[in-house]
Amino acid sequence: MTLKSASELTIGAVITDAGNSKEFLTGDWRSKRPVIDKDKCIDCLTCWIFCPDDSIIVKDEKMEGFRLSHCKGCGICSVQCPVNAIQMVPEGN
Amino acid sequence: MKMATNGDAAIAYSWKQINPAVVPAYPITPQTIIVERFSDYVHDGEVDTEYVTTESEHSAMTVAIAASAAGVRVATATASAGMALMWEMLGVCSGMRCPVVMAVANRTLSGPINIHCDHSDSMGARDTGWIQIYAENVQEAYDNSIIAFRIAEDMRVRLPIMSCLDGFILTHAYEDLEVLEDQQVKDFVGEHQQLNPLLDLSNPVTHGPLDLQDYFFEHKYQVIDAINGSLSVIKEVLDEFEALSGRKHFIAEPYMCDDADFVAIAIGSTAGTMKAVVDELRVDGKKVGLIKLKVFRPFPSQIIADMVKGKQGVAVLDRAISLGSTGPLFLEVNNALLSIEDSPSVCNYVYGIGGRDAPPSQLKQIYLDMMDGKSLPINYLGVRK
């Protein structure tokens, strides 16, 4: 993403457009990545409820994986999963 | 119209004429008369300002920022420890580009506890992104208070401003004051111009978002650019105010400087005493002059450099000290002189700390010592060592 220069920005860091947090890719903050074991997963969607971002992909009421572009690797999904289906794996492994 | 009044009441009177939308305030000596008098105007229905009595100065500044971001004209006032308690929010105010106008009744910072004048409070806040202007007398405090709104709210500036006046010496002393007509003041400051107001519900915006490594520096650069560029806006506004009032205002006022060999630079009420001292020395044929600095932030380096170029000596009077270094004005003047070849010799006089009187006899000695080459690099006027 090309970063804007000072003269192109609104003053005072005021945000004038709605919904632009999508453009702020927080996935690169992550040091650990969530990995799902679909054999264990019961599609209860507890992870979707607890995810503080929007990083749990759900399709037809099924847990489909992670939206890693915005997942900060906080691990809340892993802690909350009632069947221990989500493991946090160090990035780079 | 003429009246006899004190500096605080003069500022409250200017606010009555301007009728700011919001005044959040917490009283502190020697600023108290400003918000006390203004609360009378609110009570008596002479203004329709939303007057918010807060539980602390930190909250007063927070309300000021919020109201300004909401899109209205805001004024507040503080001094000394009150400003110290606002500290966190001062940078937030400038960073969020809220054109808040704040009167500062200059008072020292404790301890030991002391309520009297020096510039420790506002000088300590010189790096917070606020424009700072200072007054020599009650008239200038009134004029500056009106001028301040125009500078802060100018679309090329959009920064908060401190309109400073010496605690007690100006805040509580009665002087002759020539005031403008209400309508003249209203026309001069104009309607408050909004910029991305928070309360414009058809154009929703976010103020004060998280701003990290990738953009914070750019937003600070915008402030750097705006505060440096504000100097030319200030000049415009001062000229326009002169056309309205007939009173000439300078970013830095030269007094008997043209043929002077030795000049002093001073801020605030002491500049008035120094003018009398210059007059006295001129009678004796001494070629001395004074530069009275109104605008400290942005610092008018080029103007100062041009004024002292070719002089033999410059004495910089500081009513504050950066403990462990020198007076803050001295640092700025030295920095400004870096651009001059054959720079004059510069010495620093720290004076008037904690309200210590600086009588004409002592101020005269500054010139005499400078002319005799007796000034030290840093001098502490009248202190018993």
Describe this structure in words.
- The complex is a heterodimer of chains A (93) and B (385).
- Chain A is of the alpha+beta class and 93 residues long.
- Chain A contains two helices and four strands; from the N terminus they run βαββαβ.
- The model of chain A has no long low-confidence stretch (mean pLDDT 94).
- Chain B has helices at residues 7-18, 32-43, 57-70, 80-95, 120-124, 138-153, 182-189, 216-245, 270-283, 301-308, 328-337, 360-371; strands spanning 2-6, 22-25, 50-53, 75-78, 101-106, 131-134, 161-166, 174-178, 252-255, 262-267, 288-293, 295-297, 313-318, 345-350, 378-380.
- In chain B, helix 10 crosses helix 11 (328-337).
- The termini of chain B are far apart.
- Chains A and B meet through loops of A and helix 8 of B.
Note the main sheet of chain B.
Answer: 6 strands, mixed
| N-end to C-end Cα span of chain A | 26 Å
Helix percent of chain A reads: 10-25%
Low-confidence stretches of chain A: none
- Strand percent estimate of chain B: 15-25%
Structural class of chain A: alpha+beta
Give the overall pLDDT of chain B as a whole number: 97
On the 0-100 scale, what is the average pLDDT of chain A? 94
List the total number of helices of chain A.
2
Q: What kind of sheet is the major sheet of chain A?
A: 2 strands, antiparallel
CATH class of the largest domain in chain B: Alpha Beta
Specify the CATH homologous superfamily of the largest domain in chain B: Thiamin diphosphate (ThDP)-binding fold, Pyr/PP domains
